[in-house]
Design a protein that fits this description.
- The protein folds into three domains: 151 residues, Glycoside hydrolase family 3 C-terminal domain (Rossmann fold, 3-Layer(aba) Sandwich); 218 residues, no CATH class; 125 residues, no CATH class.
- It contains 19 helices and 17 strands.
- The longest helix is centred in the first third of the chain and has 20 residues.
- It starts with 27 loop residues before the first strand and ends in a 5-residue tail after the last strand.
- 49% of the residues are buried.
- About 1% of the residues have low confidence.
């Protein structure tokens, strides 16, 4: 076995599931509606069948504001008055991962549960439950999809799963078929280093730099920290990262030692609760962590803030971003098709790291607006989708450009319609200079986008409107516009960074999951 493996094999301490019920008759059952489409219909049907066929007593139905939300203390208190809990359902990445987290906590409190997952996500649920120490978490499978299923199909699937729910709550069913082995071919017969790393699943699909003692030691030394120092458990499998394990993955990615303090600060920022990394990693969404670097370190490390900032060609950008992704893969267990359930993904899942072009900006640097000094070196992370180009052909004034910024956000389907994180605009120096010339600053952009980037609810399907009124409840409660949905709940939630080369292009970057950007000061020797 290699001395410098990039992975962590330690497993979470085993947590026993709660004792099962002897029978359902007269037992009070609580339900969790995670606000997925059709979950309410499914629960109504299941609850009625359990009452009619098994004399179970219907308890509270807790409905979340969104599938990405954990159960609150008040929710756990309500469910704690029940004899058992049924959760419905996991049929996307986030609804699966968060349902697993809640189910493990309910079981830990001594209340038997069963959580329903669609067939496309049941395997991911099993692996995530194992990462939390409960490999035998009771689950029930239903066919995928559920979001787009017609009402009669929802009813049929609810009826069909009732017996399984009873078996899982009473312990009478054999769940062995649902528990899949986690072992993978480890390349033990491979003699070629690169092929061994590919065989063990330690790469992102590209060749890596083989970690040696000298290379790893040089990385650790730039951090000024002990190699064995714990940094934190990395979701979705919650394995403990140390400074050394992160350094090994930085070597794999091709980082120079002086890049390592940036990598380390980025990983620590990702573990902040405001980032919501667990949801980012496990979603069907295209979201992945975006890293934005500010301060003197940008020039010191030659991190690209200008032309092709999101593209290829800059070693620092590519390898810092890649190192973070390898940490999520090799330590956190974020494996496509196993726990990373992205429908399409995007190139940011290989690497997404840019710097702000502070010298080319007429405005205050991003990190200064976030409370840091201009001479501080910082890294900011946020859950981001792939950038969308804003091409301002024919525009002559700052107001013309601003109109395009607003218009770029008004299409249906982007993340900031559902997630109120607030979008990110990556403004080219040319656009920034023109807008500043015409008296338009960051505050004016934020205000205009907040007030005018509103989509009429008449453009949405009826069920979408119901979902928006639930998931974006703060918008309707606080903004006072009942007929439109905006792309942020507050103007200050809209983030603006200047980056890029020459040209009449800027970027609209939809964001998701993160409550807000998270910024950390970079320490160590660069």
């Amino acid at each position: 076995m290699l001395r410098f493996e990039p992975t962590v094999t330690d497993q979470a301490p085993t947590i026993a599931v709660a004792a099962r019920l002897s029978e359902l008759r007269g037992k009070r059952l609580g339900f969790v509606d995670n606000s997925k489409c059709n979950a309410d219909l499914f629960i109504e049907r299941v609850a009625a069948q359990l009452a009619e066929r098994f004399a179970a007593v219907r308890g509270p139905i807790v409905r979340k504001a969104a599938p990405k939300d954990r159960l609150s203390d008040a929710d756990f208190a309500d469910l704690g008055q029940c004899d058992a809990v049924v959760q419905c359902f996991g049929d996307c990445g986030t609804s699966t991962s968060i349902s697993v987290a809640d189910a493990v906590e309910i079981e830990r409190r001594g209340i038997p549960t069963v959580t329903v997952f669609s067939t496309a996500f049941a395997s991911a649920a099993r692996k995530q439950a194992a990462g939390r120490g409960m490999a035998d978490l009771p689950l029930a499978r239903i066919p995928h999809p559920m979001h787009t299923a017609q009402r009669h199909v929802v009813a049929e699937r609810a009826d069909a799963v009732v017996n399984t729910l009873v078996e899982r709550l009473t312990g009478r069913g054999n769940e062995a078929a649902d528990i899949e082995p986690a072992d993978r071919f480890d390349g033990s017969n491979e003699t070629d280093d690169q092929e061994l790393f590919f065989a063990r699943g330690w790469t992102d699909g590209l060749p890596v730099v083989i970690p040696t003692a000298d290379k790893v030691g040089a990385m650790v030394a730039t951090s000024g920290r002990d190699a064995a120092e714990p940094v934190g458990p990395i979701p979705p499998r919650w394995r403990q990262a140390t400074v050394e394990k992160i350094a090994i993955n930085a070597v794999l990615a091709g980082c120079r030692p002086e890049y390592f303090p940036v990598v380390l600060a980025a990983v620590e920022a990702l573990l902040d609760n405001d980032c919501q990394l667990y949801g980012i990693q496990t979603a069907t969404n295209t979201t992945s962590p975006l890293i934005i670097v500010n301060g003197p370190v940008v020039k010191e490390l030659d991190i690209n803030a200008r032309g092709n900032a999101f593209g290829q060609g800059a070693r620092a950008n590519a390898t810092i971003g890649r190192a973070v992704q390898l940490v999520l893969r090799n330590i956190g267990g974020d494996i496509p098709g196993e726990t990373d359930m992205a429908t399409h993904g995007h190139a940011g899942k290989f690497a997404a790291c840019i710097a702000e072009a502070e010298d080319d900006s007429p405005w205050s640097p991003f990190h200064v607006e976030r409370g840091f000094a201009a001479n501080d070196s910082t890294v900011t992370v946020i859950g981001a989708s792939a950038p969308q180009n804003i091409f301002t052909y024919g525009c002559e004034t700052g107001q013309d450009i601003l109109e395009h910024f607003i218009g770029a956000t008004l299409g249906l389907g982007h993340n900031n319609i559902i997630f109120p994180t607030g979008p990110l605009f990556v403004v080219s120096p040319e656009h920034a200079a023109t807008m500043a010339r015409d008296g338009i600053g960051k505050t004016e952009i934020q205000k205009a986008v907040f007030e005018r980037a509103r989509i009429p609810l008449t453009r949405f399907a009826e069920r979408s409107v119901r979902g928006l009124r639930h998931r974006r409840a703060r918008w309707f409660a606080e903004v006072g516009d009942p007929n439109h949905i905006g792309i942020a709940d507050r103007a200050e939630d809209i983030s603006i960074v200047v980056a890029g080369g020459a040209g009449i292009h800027s970027l609209f970057v939809p964001t998701a999951f993160s409550f807000r950007p998270v910024t950390r000061r970079i320490a160590g020797k660069v």
